[in-house]
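Thread title: Can someone regenerate the structure for this chain?

I was given the following input by a collaborator and told the matching structure tokens would be attached. They weren't. Posting the sequence so someone can regenerate them.
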Amino acid sequence: MRRLTQLIGLVALLLLGTAGVAVAAYAGSMTKPASGSQTIVTADVPTELRIERHCHGLLCGNPDPQLNTGDVWFELRRGTNPAIGSKVNATCVSNCSDTGTSTWTGPTVKPTGSPWPVTCNGQYQLRSFVKGNYFDGALLNFVQPPAPVAGLAANGEVGDVTVSWNATPTADVFGILVARKGATDANFVTLTPTPLARTATSYHDATVTAEQLPVTYRLAMLRHDGRVGGQWVDACTDTATTLEDTFDPCEGCAQTLSVADVKASVVSPSPSPNPSETGTEEPTGDPSGEPTEEPSEPKPAPTPTSPTTVEPADPDDDDGPPARPNISVPERPAPQTRYYGDDLGFSEELDFGAIEEVTDGEQVLPDDPFDDDSEFALDVEVPTTTTILDEEAVVKPVAIGLLLLTLGMHIRRWMLEG
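Best answer:
Regenerated them for you:
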């Protein structure tokens, strides 16, 4: 009996000990959008969770802890990459303090991705968390056209029209198409079969003719739709190169687009008149409009002459041609005398001993200073130098040297023989 009492007491102690222990094991699911579903975000998508609080222990003395603001949140993720942007907290809207099921609402997801920065079309994961642990999730597929074309304009003249626009703010635009429709065209004609780069902001059209006026240009920003072979892929992984050559949204196209049209302001240049046809001459002058005179060669100064007397020819003279007129030539001016050194600077040293006189092309040589009849004759003594060769001073050393050389050769021969 004592042992039975001890056993019952031990069991009671164990039950009382576990009654106050609560193991948090929240259950529930994501109801908006439905758990595990795929939703194409073409309109606002609300988010909602249902969370159940359970009792724990034999007497349910301590249920799951109450959840407060900040304990439940949502995040958006692209594939296995980290979450995009920041987490967004959920708010409890019903049965928040009692046990059982409570309802929590999260952010409303816009087609643009707000409140998260969605930069590419494709598939994203909407994930919910409770107390830091993953709770439930669903898939969201974004397929939005790029931002509308802004600043589109077209100006120029026939054969030279520039189409310009503002740079696109959409990060994943992969190309730009330009098309033209003139008065003679039934439909728009694509001018860029290969899309321009996303950074392009202008296009030059050199093929428009006067017969096509007026013309309208159409611009399309191209963006991948986030699907490959009709199947959604993780956002920013769509690199399809097979594109539809169309400027209208279409079902099943490999791209989304934003289209804008602009009527071009094109000037048709009028032909310039031909001066020969109008009878007017084109004015000449500098760019400022002032007429300029052609430079003329300087005319030589007139030479004063005496009157010319012409004698009439004798008509009875058959000896030859008529006599040449008798023309009197004026006298030449008197020659001017100049001296050597007149055209040199004052710093030059002049040789005044030999003055050269020049008179009108005739050169007069200076007088010879060594000519006795010259007025510039000089009394110069020419010294006479006589060189006398001292034969004895030259012959003696040569003879002695020869004797010594002969003696040395004999001594060397005797030494070799001995």
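The two ends are 159 Å apart (CA to CA).
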